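[Discussion] Sanity-checking designs against the backbone

I'm trying to build intuition for which residues belong where. Below is a structure token string of 433 positions. I'd appreciate it if someone posts a full sequence so I can compare it with mine line by line.
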């Protein structure tokens, strides 16, 4: 199994170009089911989860072409260097999303609404348990039922049908869910009549997919707010859409600069995508300066611990919680982190203590007391964002760190060693460790 070896304690100096957002790219790809005409996605990241989605969509019958390299001179694509992907859903032959693919990536549940809308039926494996909590899909199912879908759970599968098509409805989500909002946006775009989604998620990735659907001819208003109004249309056309920058990759490398007390220029990204994290960084003493296509992050000793709580956007993202904990371990004083989104998202705590991090968990909160120095250690990655907190701690720690089970990292960080290595990190991938 592959591992990452880090010789830590080196301040990082350099530039990192941020890729397209995994969590935007995945639902954008699923939108390929909705139209016979080509949907062209630019600034696509190169990640294991994207490959899993390609496999899932191809077995449904979506045609997918991928090309690498600099994309057009279209202004909205300026600076984008990622892959371009073209998807077309004119020949959906199979409405089943099998267990083997869904268990690898929960976002597979996003095909449910689009398949129902286009084919009137769908059979999607239940995603099952997950390392960071039970993560049910009840909100997706109840909301689709409100649009007229009939849903049964049989032999581990969600079996859904809409023999008379989907009909617009008023839906008030009892809890903010990114995935359920995306699923419903896509289903409602082709439903008969008007759907209103209240208490909808406001994450930038939601706006990216809503703008994509509008470019395809959908009629969605309220973008960026908690109330989305979708007037269904008969069919959607093709479009060309750029994936927004990955705000979690951005935040992770911003913390890499701060935790090593170095200076990194982050390119191809935007401050407004993660204001909550960057504002908190400023509060603790990190210096952040805007540039033309991103910002520079630098820090010296003397960072001060503060309290944060995870919340739906625009609050502090749960996907940055583990990385923030690593940073707080190097700050002066005590810092509390309260996790309100997922009930079991402190899996990284036992691993972080191996670096000498002083942390105590009480229910949904963790108290971290900054220490003088962290020391390198062999550790095990448990989930995607937990893994990046171990890499960050390893970069700050004196001595050698081995991060095992790196396949978690490859799901969400493209060319991680290359990007950090270019800033002077002594980091390498070992195969067969
Ligand atoms: C998405 C992100 C993930 C991020 C999360 C929260 C993608 C591919 N993944 O996941 O990286 O951590 O948002 O920002 O975009 N819930 C229910 N019932 C449901 C659905 C969700 O109770 O039917 C709960 C979840 O267990 C969780 C909360 O709602 O406690 C938020 O989950 P949700 O926003 O749906 O997360 P995902 O879309 O799965």
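Best answer:
Here's mine. Compare freely.
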């Amino acid at each position: 199994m592959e591992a990452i070896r880090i010789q830590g304690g080196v301040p990082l100096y350099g530039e990192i170009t941020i890729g397209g957002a995994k969590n935007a790219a995945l639902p954008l790809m699923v939108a390929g089911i909705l139209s016979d005409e080509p949907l062209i996605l630019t600034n696509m990241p190169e990640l294991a989860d994207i490959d899993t989605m390609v496999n899932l969509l191809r077995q449904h019958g979506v045609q997918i072409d991928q090309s690498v390299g600099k994309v057009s001179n279209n202004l909205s694509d300026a600076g984008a260097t990622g892959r371009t992907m073209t998807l077309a859903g004119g020949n959906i032959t199979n409405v089943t999303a099998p267990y083997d693919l869904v268990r690898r990536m929960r976002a597979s549940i996003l095909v449910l609404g689009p398949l129902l809308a286009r084919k009137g039926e769908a059979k999607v494996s239940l995603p099952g348990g997950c390392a960071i909590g039970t993560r049910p899909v009840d909100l997706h199912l109840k909301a689709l039922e409100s649009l007229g879908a009939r849903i049964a759970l049989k032999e581990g599968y969600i079996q859904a049908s809409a023999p008379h098509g989907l009909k617009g409805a008023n839906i008030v989500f009892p809890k903010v869910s990114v995935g359920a909002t995306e699923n419903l946006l896509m289903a409602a775009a082709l439903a008969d009549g008007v759907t209103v989604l209240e208490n909808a998620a406001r994450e930038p990735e939601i706006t990216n997919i809503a703008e994509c659907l509008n470019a395809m001819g959908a009629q969605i208003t309220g973008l960026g707010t908690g109330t989305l109004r979708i007037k269904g249309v008969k069919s959607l056309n093709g479009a060309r859409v750029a994936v927004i920058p990955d705000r979690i990759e951005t935040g992770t490398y911003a913390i890499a600069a701060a935790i090593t007390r170095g200076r990194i220029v982050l390119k191809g990204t935007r401050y407004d995508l993660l204001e909550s994290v960057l504002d908190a960084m400023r509060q603790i003493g990190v210096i952040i300066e805007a540039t033309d296509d991103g910002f520079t992050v630098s820090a010296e000793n003397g960072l001060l611990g503060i309290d944060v709580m995870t919340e739906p956007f625009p609050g502090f993202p749960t996907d940055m919680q583990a990385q923030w904990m690593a940073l707080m371990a190097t700050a002066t004083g005590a810092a509390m982190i309260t996790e309100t989104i997922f009930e079991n998202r402190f899996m990284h705590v036992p691993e972080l203590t191996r670096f000498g991090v002083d942390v105590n968990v009480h229910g949904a909160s963790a108290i971290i007391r900054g220490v003088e120095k962290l020391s390198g250690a062999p550790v095990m990655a448990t989930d995607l964002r937990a893994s990046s907190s171990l890499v960050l701690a390893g970069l700050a720690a004196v001595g050698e760190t081995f991060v095992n089970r790196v396949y978690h990292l490859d799901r969400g960080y493209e060319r991680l060693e290359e990007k950090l290595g270019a800033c002077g990190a002594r980091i390498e991938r070992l195969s067969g460790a």
